[in-house]
TrEMBL record:
Keywords, in A-Z order: Methyltransferase, RNA-binding, S-adenosyl-L-methionine, Transferase, tRNA processing, tRNA-binding
Name of the protein this chain belongs to: tRNA (guanine(26)-N(2))-dimethyltransferase
Region (Disordered) residue spans: 53-129
Assigned protein family: Belongs to the class I-like SAM-binding methyltransferase superfamily. Trm1 family.
Cited NCBIfam families: TRM1
Pfam families assigned to the protein according to its UniProt record, in alphabetical order: TRM
Bias type Basic and acidic residues, positions: 113-129
PANTHER family to which the protein is assigned, alphabetical: N 2 ,N 2 -DIMETHYLGUANOSINE TRNA METHYLTRANSFERASE (PTHR10631), TRNA (GUANINE(26)-N(2))-DIMETHYLTRANSFERASE (PTHR10631:SF3)
Amino acid sequence: MAEDLQDYTVIKEGEAEILMNVKNQVFFNKAQVNNRDLSIAVLRTFVSKRQEEHGAMLSKRKKSAEKASEKDASGPAVEEASTESALDNGKSNGECEVHEEISQDEPCSVSEEPVKNSEGNHHGELKPPRVLEALSASGLRALRYAREVEGIGKVVALDNDKASVEACQKNIKFNGSVAISKVESHLADARVYMLTHPKEFDVVDLDPYGSPSVFLDSAVQSVVDGGMLMCTATDMAVLCGGNGEVCYSKYGSYPLRGKYCHEMALRILLASIESHANRYKRYIVPVLSVQMNFYVRVFVRVYTSASAMKNTPLKLSYVYQCIGCDSYHLQPIGRTMSKGSSVRYLPGFGPIVPQECSDCGKKYNMGGPIWSAPIHDQEWVTSVLEGVKSMKDQYPAYDRISAVLTTISEELPDVPLFLSLHNLCATLKCTSPSAVIFRSAVINAGYRISGTHVNPLGLKSDAPMDVIWDIMRCWVRLMSNVFLPVLPS
Ligand SMILES: [Zn+2]
């Protein structure tokens, strides 16, 4: 053993310690500490939200059972029985059908969410959430989840590399009783494992080197209803338009090379996950989407509902990017028409732009489709941020992740993509107004504006492009009035 340990150094991150073979350090990626910290923060929020939702569901069921038994004018014995049968129904497909009927009227409703997620037994107890770390390498992430997130259940760590699994098993032992009781490591192809464990994990974590695209189809099937899929993509060159056709083949979406490309990368990944989910009558609700360092990472909840799935075309858009100026426009794929309480689903009206850009006369490139619905749930973001702040010492990357979360909490949630003030000025060949001046001009024109975590110079606004250009023209005029008199004649 002593001889064995000489070959290793111990690396500690958070509560977890891993043995690192000095000859082979590829396992440990220090830049990923932000990623792991953020995931732990989201996981902690997930554990408490899941508990809340389960409690709300139980009391709702109890109430409706009580109502039913009042109608029957029966005694308390029957009431008990009907509560139990309601829970039983929750696990069968029958209940799902009923919920789908109801949710037709309110298409965005996710009210059916906790039906299957809870695995609640007859006494209404919630089992601790099961986590799958599909591509675990040395197991650092799985160990941190198990040791640091209170209330977490089993963590299954997979890898299809024998040496990684051996390292992971060694690390589990090295981390002591909590790790040994909670973490299990298997040699497996993640895709096969996830396909053969459908709707079994409350959280599925995909953190591949490169693209997650080949894992998405099985991952969306392995998550329980209301569970969470966490997914990283590090192939930013592909997602940002370096090879548009490669991106299209992997994600089914064409990227554009705008300043907003990193946000577009997030939205392409979300659209791709949604399309995989749709194949199984499922859909996603993003809670947090982050671009950091050299990767994007999204946290989405997965639900099953054939009727709610009809809303997918409303959440996707093509993007027209002018090749001559900074103007871009979104073309939604679908739309709805409401008549009384019924909703009709129709293809989107188009084209949303003329053949030539009305601002500069050049043609447009078309990219997408991207996810154009919100990429964060602001209530979640607030909860995650509060959680992080209240446990400051527990996060080795506290400064970074709290800063990112703060910026995200201030982002306009319903405005896809963003403009760059520098680019606007480069197009007009003018000096840049300060962000403060530009922001107040947009607000004075009656529109909203915010920053973006993706780019410190990026500005999100719901102002139409012609309003933006009007503001910029005013600025150019103002500048020429100010500076002309001082120019030497
Ligand atoms: Zn243009």
